[in-house]
Write a structure and sequence with these properties.
The chain is an alpha+beta fold. It has 7 helices and 15 strands. It is elongated and about 65 Å long.
Length: about 350
């Protein structure tokens, strides 16, 4: 049989395979769209229930913050929907909130720090494109602890210090990155690695959690960008992900292992299934799968994995050393879909 004849015979099969992939892809996208719409509908219902009978986003609220008066639009305070700040000023609690003698809503916070948070929200509210990187508020070192505490109290940490997901692939592959109220949704048709990076600020992510959805394979962990060969993670070599290169560490449920600089450390009974959640804390010092601690750099007979002494020293050097926030950051390598469900910043940064 000639090559041309063989190619012609194989053509219908190839078209059929492409068609099947397109149908599967459309089904996945439809499911994601329905999920996002359901989340939006649930949020709209919640906000409608929370809001007072006469509360409007255009309301101008008069505040007394630590003894200083200020006025702010209600919609500005509602800009981060899942926050306690948005709930507090939704309108439902207006009548019961503390007020001064003039009827201004009293906020028992430092005006200097509260104003920084409000001005940042005003900038975001004025950003029509929603793509511009707006710098997070600058605070002095001696104010950081107080400002972080206030922002955290109002549930605004992820709103004031947002994160972005960066596709580090050097190849043209189909990747979709979406954001719902609570998480980032990522789908990649091919093996690809993604960075989690601060957006508009320099705070270091020290812990994060990922949930596998329709995932053929996933690795998550940390890399030290001071070492040049980690850029190889962007070349999409099949099976080469975070942990497989020098100066990186990752957890790979498919291989039931912690991977350090390309060396596998076996963890018994790990498996990847839909809904599997993986959490890494303290720059890779502790690892959890579905809420169960599976590995730690702390030596204990109760852990499934005991990292060798020389490797603990190496990890301490690369990931837990002072000012490591300047170099190490989270990376996820995957084929399929997953979501980043939570991330936490290092208060020392």
């Amino acid at each position: 049989m000639s090559k041309n004849k063989r190619a012609a015979d194989e053509l219908p099969s190839a078209f059929e395979s492409v068609s099947i992939l397109q149908v599967k892809r459309k089904k996945e996208l439809d499911e994601r769209e329905r999920e996002l719409q359901a989340q939006k509908n649930a949020f709209d219902i919640e906000m409608a229930e929370l809001g007072g009978d006469n509360a409007q986003p255009s309301d101008v609220l008069s505040l007394n913050v630590g003894g200083t008066k200020m006025a702010v639009l209600r919609r500005t305070l509602l800009l981060v929907p899942s926050s306690m700040l948005a709930s507090k000023f939704s309108g439902r609690w207006d009548d019961s909130m503390e007020k001064d003698a003039d009827g201004n809503i009293f906020i028992d916070q430092s005006f200097h720090l509260f104003e920084k948070m409000i001005n940042y929200l005003r900038q975001r509210a004025n950003d029509c494109l929603e793509e511009r990187e707006i710098p997070s508020p600058l605070v002095n070192d001696n104010e950081k602890s107080e400002f972080y505490s206030m922002v955290n109290y109002y549930g605004m940490t992820n709103g004031i210090y947002p994160m972005r997901i960066y596709n580090r692939s050097t190849n043209e592959i189909h990747v979709e990155i979406g954001k719902s109220t609570e998480c980032f949704l990522v789908t990649s048709e091919e093996w690809c690695s993604f960075d989690l990076r601060p957006r508009g600020h320099c705070r270091a992510i020290k812990s994060f959690e990922v949930t596998a959805l329709e995932c053929q394979r996933i690795q998550m962990g940390w890399v030290d960008e001071t070492i040049s060969d980690v850029v190889d993670l962007g070349r999409n070599e099949i099976g080469v992900g975070v942990g497989d290169r020098h100066n990186s560490i990752g957890l790979d449920p498919s291989r039931s292992s912690i991977v350090i600089d390309g060396k596998l450390h076996r963890i018994d009974d790990l498996q990847l299934k839909k809904g599997t959640s993986i959490r890494s804390e303290d720059y890779g010092n502790r690892w959890y799968v579905d809420g169960q601690l599976v590995a730690s750099n702390e030596v204990s007979e109760s852990y499934s994995v005991l990292l060798l002494k020389e490797e603990r020293v190496r990890i301490n050097k690369y990931y837990i050393a002072p000012r490591i926030d300047l170099y190490a950051h989270p990376v996820i390598s995957a084929t399929g879909s997953f979501k980043v469900t939570s991330f936490f910043y290092d208060d020392a940064t």
